[in-house]
Recover the amino acids of this structure.
């Protein structure tokens, strides 16, 4: 057993003093939460420190970390730079990947996540094969390398194995997309099953399915993947409604918007997470709410790519669970990400304190839950809580850091959300380690 005695505990229930957290080192779970006065002599005292559940990063493409800086110049190919010109640069980055390189960049990326206060990551991994599309001897070698990098860093990972079929509704894969593609849905599902088996005895690794988007995956593939997820109790993540052009293409080809198409394919359920949802319309939001599906917003990436503003207030009002992701990993900071949810809502509504749930006195509880419970729900992980039997996935925050020094207990959670950054995080424990 390891016993931690912080000055404060901050979780969904508020700020608490004088608690000791007992961690079962074997299971990596919290064994008990008790009064600090009962802590044993060998307890670890975390002075001037608040302990909180670690944040969940529900959407990442680790390799994109190495595009930092490179993509911030006007493209020679297209002076009207956009998501689509950025994507060409990203494909060049993806083209340079091999097993050693992806392990290296994933290790650096996950290490920064852990230091920033993320204790779990949903890695939406889509670079699978050799550059010409030929599988490696082990067709999951790149996914396994990403998971092993997470294990080395000690961060919890849900490897969202991406299915990629084609370049667009009526287009085969372009050259830069070949290594993302499997030749058939059966080949993809075989790889998914093999990865589930590979991950089975790895305590930090679980697996989910990720049809890339409605432009990259046909309705038939979506249906088969949804059936597999239902049979195997896996989460299903899919990009949708990030860009207006994607919606126009879906409407042209099928008469349906992306979330409508996902729903028709039988792939919208409580296990589904729509990544972005930036341009969701009212009907799509109603479908998400009816299915109890989640939305993963990636505010700093959506800002960087010029995607638009999440309809955050409408999603809250409809009761759709919204979590966060660092996506392109340009910025890795859970507090910046969750703060942006409220900031987007304020700029859109031209008022303050918008994302306020019934019974809450402000948006702090809602936005923290986007980083905690909504993220865990989207990834199929246990709820991040500081209570008996919850995973010991914890972060330590420095109460003397100049961002929050001198703030009263009653204001501390809001100060962390509205004035804090990952610089507050001094240590983390994942499965108690
Ligand atoms: Zn993404």
């Amino acid at each position: 057993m390891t016993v931690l005695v912080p000055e404060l505990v901050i979780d969904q229930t508020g700020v608490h003093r004088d608690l000791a957290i007992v961690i079962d080192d074997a299971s990596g779970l919290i064994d008990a939460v008790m009064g600090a006065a009962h802590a044993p002599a060998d307890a670890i005292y975390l002075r001037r420190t608040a302990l909180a559940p670690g944040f969940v990063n529900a959407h990442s493409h680790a390799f994109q970390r190495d595009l930092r800086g490179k993509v911030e110049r006007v493209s020679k190919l297209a002076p009207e730079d956009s998501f689509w010109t950025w994507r060409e640069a990203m494909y060049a980055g993806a083209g340079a990947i091999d097993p050693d390189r992806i392990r290296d960049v994933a290790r650096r990326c996950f290490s920064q996540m852990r230091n920033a206060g993320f204790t779990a990551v949903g890695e939406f991994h889509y670079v699978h094969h050799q550059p010409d599309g030929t599988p490696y001897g082990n067709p999951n070698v790149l996914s396994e390398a990403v998971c092993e990098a997470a294990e080395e860093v000690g961060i919890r990972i849900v490897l969202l194995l991406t299915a990629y079929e084609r370049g667009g509704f009526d287009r085969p894969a372009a050259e830069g997309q070949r290594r993302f593609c499997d030749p058939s849905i059966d080949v993809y599902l075989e790889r998914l099953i093999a990865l589930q088996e590979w991950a089975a005895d790895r305590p930090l690794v679980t697996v989910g399915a990720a049809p890339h988007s409605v432009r990259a995956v046909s309705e038939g593939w979506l249906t088969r993947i949804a059936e597999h997820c239902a049979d195997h109790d896996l989460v299903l993540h899919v990009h949708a409604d990030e860009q207006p052009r994607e919606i126009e293409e879906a409407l042209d080809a099928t008469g349906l918007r992306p979330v409508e198409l996902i729903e028709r394919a039988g792939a919208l359920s409580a296990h589904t997470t729509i990544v972005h949802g930036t341009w969701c319309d009212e009907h799509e939001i109603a479908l998400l709410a009816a299915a109890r599906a989640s939305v993963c917003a990636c505010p700093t990436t959506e800002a960087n790519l010029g995607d638009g503003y999440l309809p955050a207030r409408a999603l809250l009002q409809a009761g759709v669970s919204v979590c966060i992701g660092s996506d392109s990993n340009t910025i890795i900071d859970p507090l910046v990400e969750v703060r942006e949810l409220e900031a987007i809502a304020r700029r859109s509504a031209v008022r303050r304190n918008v994302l306020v749930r019934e019974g809450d006195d402000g948006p702090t509880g809602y936005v923290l839950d986007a980083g905690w419970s909504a993220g865990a729900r989207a990834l199929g992980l246990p709820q991040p809580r500081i209570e008996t039997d919850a995973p010991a996935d914890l972060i330590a925050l420095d109460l003397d850091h100049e961002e929050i020094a001198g703030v009263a207990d009653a204001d501390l959670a809001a100060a962390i959300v509205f004035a804090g950054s990952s610089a507050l995080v001094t240590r983390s424990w994942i499965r108690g380690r």
Notes: The two ends are 11 Å apart (CA to CA). The chain is about 35% helix and 20% strand.
